[in-house]
Amino acid sequence: xxxxxxxxxxxxxxxxxxxxxxxxxxxxxxxxxxxxxxxxxxxxxxxxxxxxxxxxxxxxxxxxxxxxxxxxxxxxxxxxxxxxxxxxxxxxxxxxxxxxxxxxxxxxxxxxxxxxxxxxxxxxxxxxxxxxxxxxxxxxxxxxxxxxxxxxxxxxxxxxxxxxxxxxxxxxxxxxxxxxxxxxxxxxxxxx
Length: 192
Description:
Blueprint: H1 2-27, E1 30-36, H2 40-56, H3 61-80, E2 94-100, E3 104-114, H4 118-130, H5 133-146, H6 157-166, E4 171-176, E5 181-191
Antiparallel strand pairs: 1-2, 2-3, 3-5, 4-5
Helix pairs in contact: 2-3, 3-6, 5-6
């Protein structure tokens, strides 16, 4: 009988952690969190959920479209660039979060990346962040016409499109896991 009460206590502690997590989500105004395997089917589900939520909240159409389009690009990037679990590959789950603060809607992704992909990606992110609205427009046109931004080079036309739609600088980080892999995190802000 004593063993059963210890198990119950352990389960109750787990539920207390869940309650604390829920409180944190409420406190930080996080609407959606997904951690795990991403696929086209899951992406459709996440997008449909977000669309329904924003319609229910009567979010302005222009803002809703911006967030939706950015979300599509971010989720596709996670799905397309996932690293298969090969022997010796660290297990780091990809994450997508959608939340708000007083001024912005926040879209955050985090996924594993090969270290050799970081320099060209960082270069592209820095280039995009260095441009104003007109510069992004011209870069987007150039990329569309000349295919100067290759998806395999680390950051394609999607990263330009995200910057154009968000109208804010992209915030990113690379955290090294080992000699082969890092975790790439990207935060996008869209004004309310």
